[in-house]
């Protein structure tokens, strides 16, 4: 039996960042994929573990079925409990530890939420709302600008090493083409466009560096395979 059950979704970016961390730490897991069209993520069994009814939710069968949700909190849990060698994390007494937390909070409040809205208004919102598409695309580019400034002279976000702070951002960065690509509606207004490599070269190079890691590449391949099933 796998050590963890991961309540997940085949396409959603947040569960797959947990998969990256599990692979980096050689931990075994079994996914349960929910069908959002059937609202399966709001079923009673899942709400018992995660009243927020969103994914990911991770159950640790080697810790009394400890249940934890919010993807960045899950990364911190895995790091503290299972990354004894600090392969992808920092000890709590490291001078950069609170900067690592800073980036996890920035990811969930600054990247995840805003980019999620950019995706929603581009791809799923039933009515065309040009002002919302423009607003969230501009905010997405603003956050990319913040990352670009941070990464001017460094290869990773904290402590000159790859950590869960970097892991947290990977999957939303991979979603950029769908946030700026052809959406559900046609608009007469000019929408903000994105040339990731040209406009944000340091951030693009960082993203490329991260996706070339074996655990990240394996996660991307596993997601593709899941989407095809
Ligand atoms: N801040 C949360 C966001 C979780 C989230 O929004 N997950 C999406 C999938 S990527 C979801 O479950 N959507 C379904 C819903 O909202 O019911 C996290 O990082 O875990």
TrEMBL record:
Gene3D superfamilies: 1.20.1050.130. InterPro entries: Glutathione-S-Trfase_C-like (IPR010987), Glutathione-S-Trfase_C_sf (IPR036282), Glutathione_S-Trfase (IPR040079), Glutathione_S-Trfase_N (IPR004045), GST_C (IPR004046), Thioredoxin-like_sf (IPR036249). One of its GO terms (molecular function) is glutathione transferase activity. The keyword Transferase applies. It comes from the Eukaryota. Residues 2-86 form the GST N-terminal domain. Keywords: Transferase. This is glutathione transferase. It comes from Schizosaccharomyces cryophilus (strain OY26 / ATCC MYA-4695 / CBS 11777 / NBRC 106824 / NRRL Y48691).
